[in-house]
Amino acid sequence: HVQLVESGGGSVQAGGSLRLSCAASGYTSRTYCMGWFRQAPGKEREGVASVDGLGRIFYADSVKGRFTISEDTGANAQYLQMNSLKPEDTGMYYCAVEARLWVGNPLSPVEYSDWGQGTQVTVS
Questions:
Q1: Residues β-bridged to residue 42
Q2: How far apart are CA 84 and CA 82, in angstroms?
């Protein structure tokens, strides 16, 4: 049973930084895609950043140059470093994993099967 647990969310002022973490357990696949997604109240869930099994990294245009996705395969963890935060970055942030080497749309939530419960990020 795959379990993903996010942490690191919080409330920050515009211009500040946060580092989100996602701890994974129960995952046996050695090839997978992982991503970070967010959902603001009243809006659809959207992709923020992802990395596929080939090591290719993808970012939403709105976060390019500000967010960095990374992973520690030895620790079964993934991270999202968020700098220069803006109020429009506010939302619930989720990590997700898909046991495929690559997916057709790396920033689309529908491509991912396993999800964490989310961590709230509020930027004011």
A1: none
A2: 7
Three-state secondary-structure class, residue 124: coil
Task: Concatenate the DSSP letters of all residues of the chain into one string.
Answer: --EEEEE--EEE-TT--EEEEEEEES---SS-EEEEEEE-TTS--EEEEEE-TT--EEE-TTTTTTEEEEEEGGGTEEEEEE-S--GGG-EEEEEEEESSS--S-TT-GGG--EE---EEEEE-
- The neighbour count for residue 19, using CB atoms within 10 Å, is 14
Residue 72 binned pLDDT confidence (cut-offs 50, 70, 90): confident
What integer pLDDT is reported at residue 73 of this predicted model? 77
Backbone torsions φ then ψ of 26, nearest 5 degrees: 75, 15
**Nearest CA among 84, 39, 92 for reference residue 63:** 84
pLDDT at residue 30 greater than cutoff 70: no
